[in-house]
Amino acid sequence: MRILFLGDVMGRAGRAAITTHLPRLRDEWRLDFVVVNGENATGGMGLSGAHAKILLDAGADVLTLGDHAFDQKDMMAFIDSEPRIIRPLNFSKAAPGVGARVFNAPGGRKVLVAQVLGQVFMKRPFDDPFSAVDSVLRQHPMGGMVQASLIDVHCEATSEKMAMGHFCDGRASIVVGTHTHVPTADAMVLPGGTAYQTDAGMCGDYNSVIGMEKTEPLRRFITGMPKARFSPATEEATLSGLFVVTDDRTGKATRVEMIRTGGRLQQAAPA
Q1: Which of 188, 191, 184 is nearest to 240 (CA)?
Q2: Distance CA 156, CA 178 (A)
Q3: Which fold has domain 2-265?
Q4: Which of 23, 74, 165, 258 has a Cα at 20 to 30 A from 5?
Q5: Does the predicted TM-score (pTM) go above 0.85?
């Protein structure tokens, strides 16, 4: 299976990049399944129902969220009406929606998508992500109920993301990090056959401070004083993510490539 994961969509520029590039990429790269992290797509803080529809209509099969899952209040109700949106497994027991679901892919194949929040350096204590992921993977073994599985690890610490990759090695097709908006150069297939990248980066304007217009973040770093609200940068965005080919029989990854399309980080497309 040919699977594309795209990192955190950041504001209007990120949404525009998705709507501009993703329909073409689905055809040119012969993609079977696309997962997009959309938790910053609405003004850099959360995802609205209207913007979720835009990303899904552009070609995303599934949208994942993150620690800003419900910053846009309409998502509290919208997520229950839209099964293609996944919130973190360990967000809150009272949260609407689900943190893992099996989706249909072409040819009758099944794909598990799950998301979990890390604990290290995050603003609030979340439940143990490792036990949450373990429970889901035990219920959906690769090569059995599902032909592929993807875990979006939304957290700050690179060490925690790497630990999750090794924890899931051989049990998930893909473990990919989100949240920091900075793409890492460590895409690889782990010894057990799991495709891994510490952070996919963002789909946003990289002439910025992690997707935000530079003036206010710089002021706060330099002076320690806020003056205005953060606002997403609006120049041409780069789609950043991970392209993975999996074996339908085993669910293991046979190929992995970092993706940079458009904007300042353009690179060659996968063959």
Answers
A1: 184
A2: 8
A3: Purple Acid Phosphatase; chain A, domain 2 (3.60.21)
A4: 74
A5: yes
